[in-house]
């Protein structure tokens, strides 16, 4: 079996990742957490239960790539370019639109970011870093 970061994700694997990612506790822990290895180890274990054999590094890389692609398409749509699209845009929109407002956005809107950017992000999986 081919492994490593270069192996392409199948549609079923991406759907499984999105289903785990969409869980409220996972979204809450991922938002704003910089040291998130423990969260991705947990995600990789959950994916394994669903029949997807990916390590935590592959899960994190796919998460970052999907998030980047989503934000690129979302920015294009907000700028009036509706020709830009991606396969799982609506699934990602459902997951990412519930993220708390980031500090930069809050400051631009003139609101106090103190209460909006403090989600409980301590991972429950106990990663030692």
UniProtKB/TrEMBL annotation:
Q: Where is this region: Disordered?
A: 106-129
User: Mind telling me which Pfam families this protein's record contains?
Assistant: Myb_DNA-bind_4
All copies of domain Myb/SANT-like DNA-binding, residue ranges:
7-95
Query: What is the top-level taxon of the source organism?
Result: Eukaryota
For bias kind Polar residues, which ranges apply? Answer: 115-129
UniProt-recorded name of the protein? ZSC20 protein
Q: Which organism is it from?
A: Scytalopus superciliaris
